[in-house]
Amino acid sequence: MTAIAGALGVDPSQLPVAASAPEYLEQKAIADGIFAVAFGLLTHIGPVPPVTGSAMVTKILTQDIEQLLGGRVLVEEDPVKATAIMVAHIDAKRKALGI
Question: Rounded distance, CA 84 to CA 2, Å?
């Protein structure tokens, strides 16, 4: 992904990409998901991970962090809704890049 971003002359967070762990089986998947967020990706994690116990942490991971890193956690139980959000995200990134 960094090679593609480099070839386009953009940050990886600007690429039309989303990540999803729709049925994570272990805490390692949460760590991998947070890595994807840090890399600048919209990252869907389901079922709802054990990070939503605090309103502040939830807001940081699902909203505020996007301003810092370009990525954020998408918490959505309904796979159809999650897919629609990810497709809209990808379409918006494509439009921003003119592709």
Answer: 25
- Chain segment 19-51, per-residue pLDDT in tens: 998 777 777 777 888 889 999 999 998 777 766
- Please tell me whether residue 63 adopts helix, strand or coil conformation: helix
For the whole model, what pTM was predicted?
A: 0.83
The 10 Å CB-count burial string (b at 16+, else e) for 43-78 is bbbbeebebeeeeeeeebbbeebbeeebbbbbbbee
- C-alpha distances in angstroms, 29 versus 37, 44, 49, 85? 12, 11, 10, 21
